[in-house]
């Protein structure tokens, strides 16, 4: 999987929030095989040191971090958060979220394009959390974005892929671009389906963190992403309307009265 | 001087952002700062003057999705 000028073996990116404990988070990262995890920034009181502890834990795992602008509802907020993330995490990557609707957490595509242009011009490598809207996708690419991350369904909804047709169309429109389904995964088959559509990767968080056994679920998603990718690259059989015998009929003995033409 | 730190009222004697952070108890840890909604890079904190009513944001790494 290619993210700007770097290549990764794993096609699964994992969120780090809402795990039962730091140790379970660490174990889940290992079990998932993820080489990239998402992180965020929040206010810290003097002397609290929670940020330092979390940062130490993530650095211990040896994975790369992808900071997000989660919770930002305006271009200004998102741009300022990205600037702060670049300094704290020492990366040009930013998972750019500009949220437009409080209930669905749907991205504000107008603000997203504007923020992408500002950040790309400032040297950021933007991974845009978007929808499957092709017009917005065109504008994001024009603005400098090289990794599009359409939602599968609303963040944390566990509904899987709401619009397979739209995701397939986006893959067809941008055959060379890195496309990652981000958000809405619930069970491993959702990730497999995304990979079978030819997506380069999957980003998920709550599906693992909030599972009864996050470490086990992390491994399940690892396998499902690998299976989906293998299936996509193996030139799958296309669906048809009628049956086709899988057992050869040539040489079958005539033992009854019925003969199908 | 009265300021707003992470949305809460606070009082500092320092006249620069860098000095105020030390006065407020922020150490060397990984954090970034904004003053009145604008990002202030770490190297510029010591040259960034504070005024009455300024709003300082100090943010640090945390878990994200």
Automatic annotation (TrEMBL), chain A:
Binding site for 1-deoxy-D-xylulose 5-phosphate: 156, 183-184, 205-206
Enzymatic reactions: [ThiS sulfur-carrier protein]-C-terminal-Gly-aminoethanethioate + 2-iminoacetate + 1-deoxy-D-xylulose 5-phosphate = [ThiS sulfur-carrier protein]-C-terminal Gly-Gly + 2-[(2R,5Z)-2-carboxy-4-methylthiazol-5(2H)-ylidene]ethyl phosphate + 2 H2O + H(+)
Keywords: Cytoplasm, Schiff base, Thiamine biosynthesis, Transferase
Active-site residue list: 95
Domain Thiazole synthase ThiG: 3-248
Keyword check for Cytoplasm: yes
Family matches, as Gene3D superfamilies: Aldolase class I
Superkingdom, taxonomy of origin: Bacteria
Main location, first listed in the record: cytoplasm
EC number: 2.8.1.10
Pfam families given in the database record: ThiG
Pathway connected to this protein: Cofactor biosynthesis; thiamine diphosphate biosynthesis
Location relative to the cell: Cytoplasm
Function: Catalyzes the rearrangement of 1-deoxy-D-xylulose 5-phosphate (DXP) to produce the thiazole phosphate moiety of thiamine. Sulfur is provided by the thiocarboxylate moiety of the carrier protein ThiS. In vitro, sulfur can be provided by H(2)S.
Complex formation: Homotetramer. Forms heterodimers with either ThiH or ThiS.
HAMAP family: ThiG (MF_00443)
Protein family per UniProt: Belongs to the ThiG family.
Record protein name field: Thiazole synthase
Organism encoding this protein: Jiella mangrovi
Phylogenetic placement of the source organism: Bacteria, Pseudomonadati, Pseudomonadota, Alphaproteobacteria, Hyphomicrobiales
TrEMBL record, chain B:
SUPFAM superfamilies: MoaD/ThiS
PANTHER family per record: SULFUR CARRIER PROTEIN THIS (PTHR34472:SF1)
NCBIfam families assigned to the protein according to its UniProt record, in alphabetical order: thiS
Record-given protein name: Sulfur carrier protein ThiS
Species for this entry: Jiella mangrovi
């Amino acid at each position: 999987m290619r993210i700007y000028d770097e290549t990764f073996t794993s096609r699964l990116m994992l969120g780090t929030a809402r795990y039962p404990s730091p140790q379970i988070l660490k174990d889940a990262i290992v079990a998932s095989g993820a080489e990239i995890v998402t992180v965020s920034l929040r206010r810290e009181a003097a002397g609290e040191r929670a940020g330092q502890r979390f940062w130490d834990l993530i650095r211990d795992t040896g994975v790369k971090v992808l900071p997000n602008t989660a919770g930002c509802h305006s271009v200004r907020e998102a741009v300022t958060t990205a600037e702060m993330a670049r300094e704290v995490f020492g990366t040009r990557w930013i998972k750019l979220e500009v949220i437009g609707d409080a209930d669905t957490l749907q991205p504000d595509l107008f603000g997203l394009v504007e923020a992408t242009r500002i950040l790309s011009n400032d040297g950021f490598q933007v991974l845009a959390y978007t929808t499957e809207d092709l017009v917005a996708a065109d504008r994001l690419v024009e603005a400098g974005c090289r990794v599009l991350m359409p939602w599968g369904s609303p963040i944390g909804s566990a509904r899987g892929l709401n619009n397979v047709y739209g995701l397939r169309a986006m893959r067809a429109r941008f055959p060379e671009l890195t496309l990652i389904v981000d958000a809405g995964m619930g069970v491993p088959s959702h990730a497999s389906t995304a990979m079978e559509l030819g997506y380069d990767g999957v980003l998920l968080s709550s599906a693992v963190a909030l599972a009864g056994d996050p470490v086990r679920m992390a491994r399940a998603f690892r396998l499902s992403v690998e299976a989906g990718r293998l299936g996509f690259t193996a030139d799958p059989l296309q669906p048809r309307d009628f049956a086709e015998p899988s057992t050869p009929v040539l040489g079958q003995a005539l033992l009854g009265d019925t003969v199908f033409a | 001087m009265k300021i707003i730190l992470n949305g809460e009222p606070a009082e500092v004697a320092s006249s620069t952002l860098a000095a105020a952070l030390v006065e407020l108890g922020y150490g060397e840890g990984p954090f970034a700062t904004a003053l009145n909604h604008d990002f202030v890079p770490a190297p510029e904190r010591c040259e960034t003057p504070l005024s009455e009513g300024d709003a300082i944001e100090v943010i640090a790494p945390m878990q994200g999705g």
